[in-house]
Structure formats: structure tokens, C-alpha cells
Specification:
The chain has 148 residues and is an all-beta fold. Helix content is 0%, strand content 35%. β3 and β4 form a beta hairpin.
């Protein structure tokens, strides 16, 4: 189940810069509570300790299935987004720092917010297979459209 929150300050990091050198999000919007207290601003997408898994989540009142697959050859996580019926909305998105993973796609059926990988410890330069689990500090964060 996705967690909601608004009280954890991620600080600033050189890994969260857009091409223009500016952070992709205002710091006041990227706040989460470390114990998952509810908020209307941010959704933390849960990660499982599996090489491939699917999470069904509601983002901006849109039910989507997020399919995550570890690509061993490329050493990266790949995201597919499906609607609640299993129809593909977005395919083959590599999880990267500093990139709105859904923002550049204007596909019908996608929720309207922003999806980011956040390093709450600010010490990663690449995303490894186990970095979202075991307390390594990476989170997949969806910023609700109303907060964008």
C-alpha cells in the first residue's frame, strides 16, 4: 500500500538537478513523514525485494498498476504503467534521479502528477537493485497534481 506524508525534509542534492541546473521540485513540496503519516501532497510508492513486481496504486484518483523490473544487463530498474484493466499506458521507463518519470509523457489515462526517485540520504550517484529496500535511502515519490 502506498504511504502518504508531508513532514520529511529531503534537503538539497546535486543529483536532483534538471538540465537547466534547477531542482525539479520545490523543497517545500518534497516532504514526507518518516513513519508514513497521511498527507495530500506526496505518495511514496512501495518497493518489494523482488526482481520484478507490480503495485496497484491510486494516484490523483486514477488507479494504475506500476510494474517494476530489474534489468540485469543494464543494471537499472524499468517501469511500465498500466491502467486498472491491464492496458499499457507507458512502457520501458528507466528509473533515474532528477527526472520526472511521467511528466514528459502526455498519454491518456496517466495520472497528472510527477514521479521522482528521491535519495533521502543524498549519497547515491546511481540506482542499484537493492537501493529502494533495506534502509538504503531511495524512495519513489509521486507528487500529486494538486501540489505541482
Amino acid at each position: 500500500m502506498a504511504e502518504y506524508g508531508n513532514n520529511y525534509d529531503f534537503g538539497e542534492s546535486p543529483f536532483y538537478k534538471d538540465d537547466d541546473g534547477l531542482p525539479p521540485l520545490q523543497q517545500s513540496r518534497l516532504n514526507l513523514n518518516t513513519d508514513g503519516v497521511a498527507s495530500a501532497d506526496v505518495v511514496v510508492i512501495p518497493f518489494q525485494n523482488l526482481p520484478s513486481f507490480t503495485e496497484e496504486v491510486t494516484l490523483d484518483e486514477v488507479i494504475v498498476r506500476l510494474k517494476f523490473s530489474w534489468n540485469s544487463a543494464g543494471s537499472c530498474w524499468i517501469l511500465d504503467v498500466l491502467d486498472s484493466s491491464g492496458n499499457m499506458l507507458l512502457s520501458g521507463v528507466t528509473l533515474l534521479f532528477g527526472v520526472d518519470l511521467m511528466g514528459k509523457y502526455h498519454t491518456s489515462g496517466l495520472p497528472g502528477g510527477n514521479l521522482f526517485v528521491v535519495d533521502k540520504n543524498m549519497n547515491h550517484t546511481v540506482i542499484g537493485k537493492d537501493d529502494f529496500i533495506n534502509g538504503r535511502g531511495l524512495l519513489l515519490v509521486y507528487v500529486l497534481r494538486s501540489s505541482s
